[in-house]
Structure formats: structure tokens, C-alpha cells
Amino acid sequence: MGSHNQKLLILTIFGMLCFIFLWTFGLPENSIKDPDFNDDSTKMNLMNDAPRKSNKDENVPFNKIPPSISNKLSTVYDVDGNPKEYINSRYYVNYLSIFRQQHHQMLSMLVQKADLAFRNNSVYSVTLKSQLAPSQDFHDYLSLARYFWPDPNGRNGLPYQKRDGYPNPEIETVKDYAFLRKVFKDVENLGFAYYFTRNDSYVEKSIYRIKEWFINPETKMNPNLNYASFIKGFNSGRRTGVLDMHPIYRMLQSIPLMRSSSKWDFLVENQLKQWISDYYEWLEITSLGKNEKISLNNHGTYYDVQAIFLLSYLDREEEASKYSLEALIHRVNTGIGLSGQQHHETIRPTSWFYSVFNLQALFLLAERSQYYGYDGWNYVGPKGQSIKKAIDYLLPYALTDGKGWPFNNIKEFELNSFVRLLELAFVIWPDDKYLKALIILRPKAKSEQALEYRNADWEDNYLCVWSLMTNKQLWTCVE
Ligand SMILES: *[C@@H]1O[C@H](CO)[C@@H](O)[C@H](O)[C@H]1NC(C)=O
Ligand SMILES: *[C@@H]1O[C@H](CO)[C@@H](O)[C@H](O)[C@H]1NC(C)=O
């Protein structure tokens, strides 16, 4: 990484940490009061190569401060002209204390989660379900279509009818979906916890879960989604069921972190790779996979996210890179209108939820594109569409709790997931309106979490900051 990039990265992280810290705790009593603390350093952009301006602040009597302190950065050149950047001491002291505190907090929460995953000895398996897919194979994954309901007058409730936006609680009678997500989440937490603690127990448990879900003949899942999002009365599942698998990136990003452990089992991993390879082939050759790929709404966006991570895990990095660039451009062009409205989401009865949900996938695509060297965050489509426009489109309605939202919306205006994107937006695009909005919205999101909303699992984005520092090994920035 070039020193310029490093400088930007450090500044970005510094800014975000200051911001998160100040947000969470307010200024500590003993912090050094500084009139321009937490101003433009919070606005540094990770990607933009804008030259750094001097840090003149109108409110500071600039001529009274020695130059080395008035700047947040000092550059010292050695005899060969090689620069070394120093963060101004006052900021550095604050930076370190913020860093220590946030790190400690994050780590104790992460270890708690990993310990829960470690201690959980119940079986996670597709074979536990009491109803079978039409194939009559217990190993075939089955999930029931979320928005389909039995006909009260029909025989056996058939035919099922669609009520978009109204989940049928009957879906809970098949646990494959919940188990699948639990496997991904547990392996993620175990791998991340290993990364920080080097406790091999977490690796052993990950291997155990991977074997149980993907490999053991008694408990494994077959590498297909033939019966995902299944409507009773039909012979197969639907293409929309492919979405069930999208959080697989949680597991796939965690695995490389565990390979350094003596408890990592490469034979098991080879079998997992075979499974992933078979599954990717299934995605490519079945009509379910193909049709999901060409869908225009969040289903298509998440298909792309999934495909990029799968290709990358299979060491097909060139394809992953190419795919990531094409997907980013395609989804911004087709998923976002010139106003920033996401038309394919706003037609849904739960239009707010799906607008945020698709935006999360776009953030994941942008992150992947950046990982492969392309600045997808700032890509602008032929009509002026961009990811930033999509978040800016939603922002005013978030601020009014949905008042004035010009679309049908049968669900509440949940803010938690949106605020999480907003915190990331604030780091990516230097725009004060995001900070102003966060002042209002973050407390609301926090109270939603206290009510245990769906996405309550959110630890102040510290791990997201960490991921920005570690080449995206721990990408937890969207939920
Ligand atoms: C590793 O984690 C396990 C599971 O929580 C725990 O029982 C064990 O004491 C830990 N080992 C060390 C060395 O901390
Ligand atoms: C273990 O995980 C399963 C599946 O998510 C869950 O139903 C069960 O309550 C968990 N058990 C413990 C002890 O946490």
C-alpha cells in the first residue's frame, strides 16, 4: 500500500473512531479540549485522492498556534526525501485512548458471542425437519415461501396464495433457514474471535460446524437450493430461494483467518471447497439460479454479492474481480433511478425495508469492487445514478420517521439498518449532513435495538473500523 493511501486510511480510521467515541461517550473529562478536534479529520475520504488542504479553521486564531500543532498531521522528510507522517500529539493521545476503549469493548462482546457458539452443542442440520421436500431426501434444504398463505377454503390449504409483505408464521415449522444462518454467523464469530485471541478452541468448533453442515453423511446439506422458498403444492422451490444463501460471505471471510491455527483441518476444507464448487455450478446451470441472477431487484443484487464471494473462495479471483466490477455497474444502472429512488424496491408493500435491504447489497458490492481496485462507491451511471444518491434519497424520510414517504409501506420505518449504513456513508463520503442526521437518528436506532428489533445485533461498528484497517478481512459494516 502506498504511503498516501496509508495516510488516508489512518485519517479515516482516526476520524471514524473519534466520531464513534464522541458519539458513544461524549468528550471524556480529561480529554484535551481542542476547538477543532473532530472536525475535518472526520471527513477524510478513504477513496478520494483529493489533495489534503491545510487545516485552517475560521474559528481558531490560527496565527497563535505553532504550525506543528495547528496541523493534525506533520510530515517529516528524511535526507532522501522520504516522508513520514506524524499525527499531532494531542490527537494521537485521544486516538489511542479511544482505540483502547473501543477495542476492549468490541473484544469482550465478540468473545462472548464466540463462547456462546462454542458452548452450543445442539445439532444444526437440514435432516432434523419433520416435513420433507418433494425429493423425499432429508439432505435437501427446504424453506417455505415467506409471503404465501394457505387458502382457507381449499383442500389442505391448496393452492397457497401470495400476500406480499405478510410473512406466514408457518415458515418457522421448517428450521433449515434458521440453521443455515446460524452456521454462517457462528463460524463468523468463531473465526473473528480466533483472529483476536488465538484460542484454538474456536477453530475446532468451526471445523465441527462445517463438517456437520456440509460434510458428514448423516447431517450434511446437499449442495443445492432446489426446494428453497417452496410453496406447498408445487414440485420445486423458487428462484427467490437463492437469497437464503447470501450470508454465506460471513463464513467465507472468516475461514482464511483460521488457517494459521494448528487445529485448522485442510482435509475438511478441501471437502468444503468441493461443496462450494458444486453449489456454484448449481447456481450457474439451473433455471432457479439463472433466473435469480437476472432478476432486477434485491434478489439480483444479492445474487451478485454471493457469486463474488463464492468465486473468490474458490480461488477464482480474476473472475471474481471482473464479476464485481460488472455487477456494481449493472446494479447501480438498473437498480437506482436518477432521483436515487430504487424503483424495484419501492413497488413492494414493504417498500422501506426493501429499499434499505437492497442498499445494503449495493454497499457490499461497492466494498467488493473497492477490494478489487475499483472505486464503486463513487461510480455514477449514465443517468447520474449512484449509491450515494440512493442513500440521500432515503435520508429525509428517515428523519421524518417515514412521514411523506410516497409509497405504500405496510411495515414500520425501522431505522437500525439504515443508521448503520449512514455511519458508513459518513466515512465514505465527506458530507456533514450525515453527521447531522446521525445526531438525530442514532438514538432512535439504539432504542429500536433495546426493543430487540430484527437487526439488533450491532456493536457500534468498531469491527467495521477494524475491517477498514485490515483489507476487509472482517467486513461487518452492514447487517
Ligand atoms: C478458549 O475458549 C474456550 C471456550 O470459551 C475456553 O473454555 C478456554 O478457556 C479458552 N482458552 C484460553 C486459553 O483462553
Ligand atoms: C444453540 O443453537 C440453536 C440453533 O440456533 C438454538 O436453537 C439453541 O437455543 C442454542 N442453544 C444454546 C444453549 O444457546
From TrEMBL:
Pfam families: Alginate_lyase. It comes from the Eukaryota. Keywords: Lyase, Membrane, Signal, Transmembrane, Transmembrane helix. One of its GO terms (cellular component) is periplasmic space. The keyword Mitochondrion does not apply. The keyword Secreted does not apply. The chain crosses the membrane at residues 7-26. Coiled coil: none annotated. GO terms for molecular function: lyase activity. Residues 125-405 form the Alginate lyase domain. This is 17401_t:CDS:1. It comes from Funneliformis geosporum.
